[in-house]
Amino acid sequence: MTGGRHYGMDWLRIAAFGLLILYHIGMYFVPWGWHVKIAEPLDWVTIPMLATNGWRLALLFLVSGYASAALFAKLGGSAAFARSRSVRLLVPLVFGIIVIIPPQPWIELVGQHGYADGFLHFWAHDYFRFGSLEGIILPTWQHLWFVVYLWVYTMLAALLLALIPEPARAKITSIAAGALRGWRMLVAPLALWALIYVLFPTHDETHALFDDGPSHLHYLVPFFVGWLLRVRPVLFETAARYWKVALVLALLAFVPVAWIEWTWAGGTVAPDAVFPPYHLMRLVNGWMAIVAFVGIADRFWNRDHPKRAMLAEAVFPFYIIHQTIIVVVGWYLLQAGAAALPSFLVLLVTTTIGCWLFYIIGRNIGWLRPLIGLQR
């Protein structure tokens, strides 16, 4: 810790959101279903994409759990914490659903379902139908599902903190932290993930909140581990001690994942016997990568920089706008018949510029700040 703030966690949060943006650019090129796709998807792109699939979202929940615990300590009460989190998360969520998200389902409907009407007609007459159109529930939160889930988890934390007296809370925290000390940090959360998979082996993540119970259990594990890192910072010592071991295990676990994906590429269906080891190795890869990144952040990134505060503030506005930029630009690239490499470069440049413009303009207009996730 440096001056009460762990700068390494700030850098980890910045890197995690940056990687998420790059991942969503990659979704334009892989054969997996998405809002808009290049005319000829590239099977090989699935390998680097899968290299992050096991941990990128869980890492976001871990750093969010850490930040939530820091905010709770600053505000000093469950009610103030819940109020602050609700304003900071729900206001940009509603703004995003109404203003930012609509081009995404419109482009998907036009490109994949033959929807004939223009965007303004869609927004005025079909988007707010509160029902299904060609299998797409409208209105929709699309990539902002993360904000919804994070709000639910912070409200759960606020409720537990309000109901559990401080002495009992401290005892529970000490027991939980003890369960993560030493080699147990590598094993305990992974065991919980494996148990969730064994109990719900056929569950597919929906991002629809109410029918996504196993996903909630999965993401609550890193969220509360992140919370524990803030209230028991001694756990950083464990991550710093074991990050090399965790990194090696993460890399080794990814080998069978990559092999299976490459062997049964594209739309080829793998044998049923392949799925359990595939998913279990993804869990090993995911948790070990998270431990490694936390250890690296503690050992090497726990230092300030003049741009850190601005970058830490910018990541939420970047997150809100980035996917709409990617989908819209990808749609025009598809219409133009652009090849893969030029498409990637155009998407990378336009998404970067668009995110910065969205943040810079929004932060300098007082009434826009809360709409893009910034404090007044």
Please describe the topology of this protein.
Blueprint: H1 7-26, H2 46-53, H3 56-75, H4 78-100, H5 103-113, H6 119-126, E1 131-133, E2 136-138, H7 145-163, H8 166-178, H9 184-199, H10 213-231, H11 235-263, H12 275-300, H13 308-336, H14 340-363
Antiparallel strand pairs: 1-2
Summarize the structure.
With 376 residues, this protein is mainly alpha-helical.
How would you describe what is shown here?
This protein is an all-alpha fold and 376 residues long. The protein has helices at 7-26, 46-53, 56-75, 78-100, 103-113, 119-126, 145-163, 166-178, 184-199, 213-231, 235-263, 275-300, 308-336, 340-363; strands at residues 131-133, 136-138. The chain has one domain. It contains 14 helices and two strands; from the N terminus they run ααααααββαααααααα.
Which descriptors would you attach to this protein?
two-stranded antiparallel sheet, 70% helix, 376 residues, 2 strands, mainly alpha
In total, the number of strands is 2
Distance between the termini: 28 Å
For the largest beta sheet, what order do the strands appear in spatially? Answer: 1-2
Provide a count of the helices.
14
Oligomer: single chain
**CA gyration radius, whole angstroms:** 21 Å
Residue windows where pLDDT falls under 50 for at least 5 positions:
none
Q: Which class of secondary structure composition applies to the elements?
A: mainly alpha
SSE string, helices as H and strands as E: HHHHHHEEHHHHHHHH
- The shape, in one word, is globular
Give a short account of the largest sheet. Answer: 2 strands, antiparallel
Kindly report the average pLDDT value: 95
Our estimate of the beta-strand percent is: under 5%
Helix content: over 70%
List the domain count as a whole number: 1
